[in-house]
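Journal club prep — side note

Before the paper discussion, L.F. wants everyone to see what a predicted structure for a comparable chain looks like in token form. Sequence:
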Amino acid sequence: MKNKNYNIFLFLSTISRNLMEVLNIALLYKLNYSLKQIILFYIIFYFTGIIVNLLVVYLSNYLKIKYILIISSILLCLSYYYLNIMNNNLKSLIIFSILSAFSSFSYHIIRHFYALNCKSNKDKEIGNYLIFTVLGVSLATYINTYILECYSMLINIIIVLILGILSIIPLSKISITNEKEKLTNVKLNIRQKLFFYLEQSKVLFLLFEPLYLIIHIKDKLTYIGLFNAVLSMSSIISIYLVVRKINNYKYFKYINIIFVLILITKLNITNSNILLLIAFMEGILTKLYEIVSTKNLYQINYLTNIKSYLLKVEIIFLSSRVILLLIFYLTNINIKTLLYILLPIILLSGFILKQEEKDN
């Protein structure tokens, strides 16, 4: 029952979050911000995220987590209302970045906290988590692009608030006993930690992918929505068919090599229809990668202090993204070069984890 309630929360909250977040980068570009300014936006966004994670963990000792999620949903609406009225200047960009960081990272660490408290059968539940996430992202992208093309952002903001609050209801049926646990020093396996750092190259590649498509392939939000829909469809197929039948760790380095080759192919094709076929393959391989990365994230024993573990991991995630983005910001590169630089790091991440360490 825990997992069913968590999956409902995950599905509804993913729709709510991704109604706007999935196209953040494209919307900023549509507001005539340059690539360098967009990179600056994400540097501030992720750096502020570190502070927000620390704040959420501190507040969770005094407030129920569901109340933090309600505040997070309200902040999400405020950030996108601000996006709807903001001017194209540096001050507006910084304000939107900070607002977005508070709304986003007050959610993610709590989502992982509930996931770790709910999981029982590791492979099956991780597969279910990814399926509900993909379904939510796919539906959110379709709704978002349709509303933005035909109506206004205000409609999206109203839907975001309603779904955000509704998603919290299933959490009230999940009993959590470690909500106010005190922080302790949690040690991470060196390979696990290194993988966490390198994995962020994949996160950044997928983050900047919509911007690449708009600049080099087709300058339409509806095409981004279609591209993401194809990605999502193939992702669900790969999770459903593969997660219970293939030892992903055993073949991870080979899967990752093919994944990188598909990404290279995508960067050298300009035909929008052919790219949709590439998107189908990319979706399969992206989720095969994420099955392993999610297992790696959720691979802890029952004695682990969950809040301390997640806080440490989130800081690793965000600090590594800030470092990479700072390099890109200072070198003033174009979007295609940025994506190419990330590819070797993605490739290297496939050779870090070892079989005996994954199956603990």
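L.F.'s comment for the group: Residues 356-360 have pLDDT under 50 and may be disordered. Keep this in mind when we get to the figures.
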